[in-house]
Design a protein that fits this description.
Layout: E1 10-12, E2 18-20, E3 24-30, E4 33-38, E5 43-46, H1 50-57, E6 63-67, E7 70-73, E8 77-81, E9 84-88, E10 94-99, H2 105-123
Antiparallel strand pairs: 1-2, 3-4, 3-7, 4-5, 6-7, 8-9, 9-10
InterPro entries: LytTR_DNA-bd_dom
Domain HTH LytTR-type: 14-114
Organism: Emticicia aquatilis
């Protein structure tokens, strides 16, 4: 697991704008474009495919791709029930649900367990 990534890492997502990883809730595909959803409730459109952006985010363990249309920051998933991940804003407002593909369900379950262990470790310190 990549522990070097932290909430203060910046990533360039379209153009010259750099965003802190902790500000990104999810990325959602829209044909050959991608919407980036931020913690302040705003979103913006970038001219990159989700596939291309997913490669750039792959080094950060807490970003997962439950299906071909969405890349999630697991820090904003409020519940995980079967094949659905619920995505919430920091204020508790539910943004949307993401359906998990059957093929990726075991991978997502394992990653969520690992991340919970890491969070529990840091909270106990």
């Amino acid at each position: 697991m990549n522990m070097k990534a932290n909430n203060y890492d910046l990533i360039s997502v379209g153009g010259r704008k750099k965003i802190a990883l902790k500000e990104i809730i999810m990325l959602r595909a829209e044909v050959n474009y991608t919407y980036v959803y931020l913690t302040d409730g705003s979103r913006f459109l970038v001219s990159y495919t989700l596939k291309k952006l997913a490669k750039r985010f792959s080094e950060f363990d807490y970003f997962v791709r439950p299906n071909k249309s969405v890349l999630l920051n697991t820090k904003y998933t409020s519940s995980f029930d079967g094949l659905v991940l619920q995505i919430s804003l920091p204020n508790g407002e539910i943004l949307q649900n993401a359906v998990i593909s059957r093929r990726k369900k075991p991978i997502i379950q394992q990653k969520m367990k690992e991340l919970k262990k890491i969070d529990a470790y840091f909270l106990s310190r």
